[in-house]
Amino acid sequence: MTTLAHLRRTALALPGTAQRGSRPGPVEFTVHDRWFASAGENGHLLLHLPGPEADELLAAHPTGGRLTRGAAPVGVRVPLGDLDGQQLNHWVRRAWLARAPKRLAARVAAADSAVPGAVGDLPKAIGRPATRALTGAGITTLDQVAELTEAELLAMHGVGPKAVRILGETLGATGRAFNG
User: Fold this and answer.
1) How far apart are CA 127 and CA 150, in angstroms?
2) Which SUPFAM superfamilies match (predicted)?
3) How far, in Å, CA of 70 to CA of 126, rounded?
4) Burial of 5 (0-12, 13-18, 19+ CB in 10 A)
5) What are phi and psi of 48, to 5 degrees?
6) Closest CA to 119 of 105, 104, 130
7) Cα torsion at 12, 15, 20, 25 (round to 10°)?
């Protein structure tokens, strides 16, 4: 069973995402002011999904239902507790990709195939999750890394203390350091 906290972590880990609303009322997640996911007091997750993806989610979760605006389908409603963590992550990401600006969505999709050591001059030793997180944020060079603080790097989903240490050592070897 997933929770609102899990939804919040998943949605806010996606670039350009903002949260509207707070407990105990409805919480809505947007990307560049376009709604893609929300949850309310009734325990339902609402996702803005295109038709084929909505059909796929509803086939797997018959407790869900269609969301419509007038007569036009705009997404799905499914009890939050009916999704496990991996399913929640997948469907929230799919909704985000459907609503994000094309450039941003393309950058994030490209990050999925980012290979450590093959992106700009980022060190291979930072690993796949950190490489993907940085690439997804549009950071592909050590010069861009040097513009960030350690706290900003650690706030990125996928960038942990080990990756920050390796990036700091690599910057230090070239006479640079993190910002701040």
Assistant:
1) 17
2) C-terminal domain of RNA polymerase alpha subunit (SSF47789)
3) 49
4) exposed
5) -85, 105
6) 130
7) -30
Long-range CB contact pairs, 54-60, < 8 A, 24+: 57/91, 60/87
Domain 4-100 and domain 111-173, same fold? Reply is no
Cα 159-163-169 angle, rounded to 5 deg: 145
Greatest mean pLDDT among 108-112, 128-132, 162-166 lies in 162-166
- Rounded to an integer, what distance in angstroms lies between the CA atom of residue 72 and that of residue 74? 6
CATH code at 4-100: 3.90.1150.30
Residue type, 75: G
Say if residues 145 and 167 touch (Cβ distance below 8 Å). Answer: yes
Six token digits for residue 27: 């919480």
Query: Which sequence spans correspond to the domains of the chain?
Result: 4-100, 111-173
* Whole-prediction pTM: 0.74
Rounded to whole angstroms, how far apart are CA atoms 145 and 119? 13
The yes-or-no verdict on residue 23 having pLDDT over 60 is no
Q: Answer yes or no: are the C-beta atoms of 35 and 75 closer than 8 Å.
A: no
